[in-house]
Amino acid sequence: MLLQQIAPVQITAYTLEAGGVRAGKTALDEINSNPLRAPDNEAAQKMLERIESCRLAQDSCGGIVECRISGIPAGWGEPVFDKLDALLGHAILSIGAVKGFTVGSGFEAARTTGSVNNSAPGAAGGIRGGISDGEEIVFQAAVKPTPSISREQMMPGTDGALHPFAIKGRHDVCIVPRIIPVIEAVAAIVLADCALRQRCAVI
């Protein structure tokens, strides 16, 4: 892997939330022990129950994927147009079904003060001023509910009127676990590009 040749990068994504149920802890060793790839086996069971209830109701649910990246040295990214968080956001938001992206404390930072946010652990998410600071990079991606559901809905037709509509076939009730490896791969591509830019800059 290109990244491994430059830095000891480790990218780990997991289901932080699904169907409104949020993991209460971040035990990375539990990710591979449940089908949702959640870092909390107890919460994963509750997520599965919520997903099953949506399936029975012929509905779907979304969730949040969190990604942690370690081993990135300080200095990757640019201070203006190609900020590292902007590059990651651009790429992650290009994944189908992803409708939101935050780094570090994200929207929570808008609800606090500078004195609190400046000193809060992990608030910057490993990126300051668009450049990696050597700390662990942490971002979250919001995944919308699967739009293809079996429940009959009223949809506008070509005549402008509403008509009953239902999609037949097999559909994932929650696609959050399926997006996890995609998010890891896309993040790796962005970081590999940054690594090559950095290599060119110092030659």
Can I get a quick summary?
Helix 3 (84-92) runs antiparallel to helix 5 (176-202).
Give a structural overview:
- Helix 3 (84-92) runs antiparallel to helix 5 (176-202).
- The model has no long low-confidence stretch (mean pLDDT 93).
- The strands form 3 sheets. Strands 2-1-3-7-4 form a 5-stranded antiparallel β-sheet.
- The chain is α+β, with helices and mostly antiparallel strands.
- It has 5 helices and 9 strands.
What percent of residues adopt helix (DSSP H or I)? 25-40%
> Mean of the pLDDT scores?
93
Distance between the termini: 21 Å
SS class: alpha+beta
Report the uncertain regions: none
Q: Work out the number of β strands.
A: 9
The biggest beta sheet reads: 5 strands, antiparallel
- Rg for CA atoms: 19 Å
Instruction: Give the DSSP E fraction (strand runs of 2 or more residues).
Output: 15-25%
Instruction: Going across the biggest sheet, name each strand in turn.
Output: 2-1-3-7-4
- Elements, N to C (H/E): HEEHEHEHEEEEEH
Total DSSP helices: 5
Shape: globular
Topology (SSEs and partners):
Layout: H1 2-6, E1 10-18, E2 21-22, H2 41-56, E3 63-70, H3 84-92, E4 98-103, H4 114-119, E5 127-128, E6 131-132, E7 137-143, E8 153-156, E9 162-165, H5 176-202
Antiparallel strand pairs: 1-2, 1-3, 3-7, 4-7, 5-6, 8-9
Helix pairs in contact: 3-5
Structural descriptors:
203 residues; alpha+beta; 5-stranded antiparallel sheet
